[in-house]
């Protein structure tokens, strides 16, 4: 069912392909484990996956370690120079960063089983942009590591862009069908 959702057949425009890709990714994420969400968040293409990342951020079952990873990978250190969404290059990203901060502080993400330390992150880190002027500092809570007992392999075999190969192949097929 992931390879060919019946309600999405015969779509050919770029917008339709984006809709199909989002449907495939979100169908996968809806059934995936917290560790798989963490892998997706770490290996996903952040330029194209904001809707799927927003979907994850909206899940109260998202692990605190994964929420923190998304926060830093979205470029929190870069966005300290902006006071409001309309100042940022991507208002959507700025808004998502604020949503993560608010939910994180409010305890929306209840579990912290997956470890993540922003200072040893493979992606975004607090010290990424030392030359950027700080207009709105990162809240202290977002600088603290999540000392979860579960360490997730961020480079599992059989994954591409944070997705299991069968899901990635289904997405690639959409583009091949569109080009062919």
Your description of this structure?
There is one protein chain. This protein is mainly alpha-helical. The chain contains 7 helices and 2 strands; from the N terminus they run ααααααββα. It has helices at 14-31, 34-43, 50-57, 64-73, 76-79, 91-106, 165-179; strands spanning 159-160, 163-164. It has a two-stranded antiparallel sheet. Strand 1 and strand 2 (163-164) form a beta hairpin. Helix 1 (14-31) runs antiparallel to helix 7 (165-179) and helix 2 runs parallel beside helix 4 (64-73). The longest helix has 18 residues, at 14-31. It is globular. Residues 1-12 have low confidence and may be disordered.
Q: What's the number of helices?
A: 7
| Rg (CA only) | 17 Å
The structure class reads: mainly alpha
Secondary-structure element sequence? Answer: HHHHHHEEH
Largest sheet: 2 strands, antiparallel
Globally, the shape reads globular
Provide the residue-averaged pLDDT: 91
Number of strands: 2
Strand order of the largest sheet: 1-2
Strand content: under 5%
What proportion of the residues is helical, as a percent range?
40-55%
**Unreliable sequence segments:** 1-12
Q: Separation of termini? A: 22 Å
């Amino acid at each position: 069912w992931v390879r060919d959702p019946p309600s999405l057949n015969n779509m050919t425009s770029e917008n339709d392909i984006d809709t199909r890709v989002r449907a495939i990714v979100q169908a996968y994420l809806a059934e995936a484990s917290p560790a798989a969400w963490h892998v997706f968040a770490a290996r996903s293409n952040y330029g194209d996956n904001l809707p799927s990342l927003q979907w994850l951020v909206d899940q109260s079952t998202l692990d605190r370690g994964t929420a923190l990873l998304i926060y830093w990978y979205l470029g929190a250190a870069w966005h300290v120079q902006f006071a409001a969404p309309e100042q940022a290059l991507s208002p959507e990203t700025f808004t998502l960063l604020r949503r993560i901060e608010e939910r994180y502080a409010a305890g929306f993400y209840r579990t912290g089983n997956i470890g993540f330390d922003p200072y040893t992150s493979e992606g975004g880190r607090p010290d990424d942009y030392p030359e950027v002027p700080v207009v709105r500092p990162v809240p202290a809570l977002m600088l603290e590591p999540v000392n979860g007992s579960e360490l997730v392999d961020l480079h599992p075999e059989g994954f591409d862009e944070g997705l299991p190969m069968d899901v990635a192949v289904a997405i690639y097929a959409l583009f091949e069908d569109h080009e062919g």
